[in-house]
Amino acid sequence: MPGKKKNLLTRFLKWRYKNISNKTFVQIMSVIVGFLAGLAAVTLKNITYFIQAVLEGGIVISQNQLYFILPVFGLTLVYLYVKFVHKRPIQHAVSSIIFALSKKGGLLSVKNIYTPLIAAPLTVGFGGSVGLLGPAVKSGSAISSNLSRLFHLEPKTRSLLVACASAGAISSIFQSPIAAIIFAVEVFTLDLTMLSMLPLLLASISGVLTSYFFLGNEVLFSFSLSEGFELKDTLFYILLGIGTAFASIYFTKMYFAILDFFKRFRSPKYKLLVGGIAIGIMLYAIPPLYGEGFSFINNLLEGKHLDALGNTPFDNYTHNIWVVIALLFGITIFKAIAMTATFAAGGAGGIFIPTMVMGSALGNVVAKVINNLGFGFEVSESNFTLIGMAGLIAGVIHAPLTAIFLIAEITGGYQLFVPLMITASISFLITKNALDYTIYTKELAKIGALLTHNKDQMVLGLMEMEDVIETNFKSVQPEMTLGEMLHQSVSKSTRNIFPVLNENQKLMGIIVLDDIREFMFDNELYGTLFVKNLMHAPPEHIFYDTDNMKQVMQKFQDSGAWNLPVIKEGKYVGFISKSKLLTAYRRKLINYTR
Length: 594
Prior knowledge:
Layout: H1 2-19, H2 22-61, H3 70-86, H4 93-103, H5 111-125, H6 133-150, H7 155-174, H8 177-187, H9 194-215, H10 234-262, H11 268-285, H12 294-301, H13 305-309, H14 321-344, H15 352-372, H16 381-396, H17 400-411, H18 417-434, H19 442-446, H20 455-462, E1 469-470, H21 482-488, E2 497-501, E3 507-512, H22 513-516, H23 531-534, E4 542-543, H24 549-559, E5 563-568, E6 571-577, H25 578-593
Parallel strand pairs: 4-5
Antiparallel strand pairs: 1-6, 2-3, 5-6
Helix pairs in contact: 2-5, 2-6, 2-7, 2-9, 3-5, 3-11, 4-6, 5-6, 6-7, 7-8, 7-9, 8-9, 8-17, 10-14, 10-15, 10-16, 10-18, 11-14, 12-15, 14-15, 15-16, 16-17, 16-18, 17-18, 20-25
């Protein structure tokens, strides 16, 4: 049976090559992956909402007491799934996709199709304070990657279709096809041309139609604008941009600080226990931290701040607006902590929607403060809630255009384009100057796997070190005489450089042909002159385990060398030559830009 399926696939591929151009086939595939990514997103949402609906009654009956237990229970289920089924730690969704695009030609394992559909609902449904966008994008991208591999598509096309799948998933979740395309371009640093634009557009349309088909006209935010932009509010939108910038910096720094704290716990069980209890305590005190938080945003948009806050230990004091402001500001502070604790404890999810929740709370706080200072100012709390979301998205993930178009699309708020641009651009500029990398990209930048819109850096990031290492160098030992070196290595080598290795294959130094040229024909020195007397240190070393291709290129530039030795796990493995490095760079650049 498997042979029959393989034969059918081979016949289809032959037919496709003869009858369908590559361009047309990519466009067809973009529609398919958009639909499948949208279907994955819809499935993910429905599973999560079903779990939440089942547990909701118990939470109400227990008067929030279950908040202490549910996160630990959900994280335990995820831990058991990872240990016995997935069998490897769950990686951050968007970061792992960027790594796959950068270093694996867009290849993602089959497990990445179904694991997000299991782990994320268990995490979010049981109270984990993370979002579903990242897992939806991961599942859709894995579907696209494996379909591309099945149909023998080249890496560049496969990467484009992975970006198409992400656009389809985002379009399906938010019903915002334009923002979905922009997200793929900004976050995955896709080179936007007409060749890539049409597949992205088709995938995005396919994803949003899938959402409409299965969910009807159900929208995330049941809100329509009643107040547009007023010039007199410009200064307040600038202040909101500054506020969201500092909140974005706090969000990012807190994320990495908490992850570093949890690294102290070597056992996943301790991480689960500490993280689960911490989340439970936060949920009991601040119920809106439960799950994604879309209902919280909707209540703020409708002006129902008490419904947004839910039942808290501070209910007796919420008649005072400043207590409400303090509680909403607490959500701004603790959303980042609850989200990161969920990740650190082993949960699965995304950061995008928690960013929106945090931004909505902050925007609402700023508006309430302005309206209650007593200076006679009056601004729209709903508008500030929306624009606060855009400011956080622009600052946290460095994607201002995504932020602007997403908020405009999901609310029909194109009247707010000017304040959206003001707040998002200020937040992005301040955050970008304060933080070089985002939550998505910081770890990738350390290993040289970061994709950027800078073509030079992009191409260097796509290059693999093993592709440029040369091993046809004759090695010599320190105790060799000049004569032994000449007869055993120099006479049999086509290269003019010789690595000096000890018995453990560790590099002691190098000898260049120019170093021995004056002694080569002096027979009297053949038995008295030793390699250890002739060798010298190389101008620089390349470390396979830690250096990325950008650092390798920099070392050639700084040292002025033509060949540099490569060290892997403390042992010599070969040389990289400048000529081969530049040839590989030019070839990769041509393939990337064609």
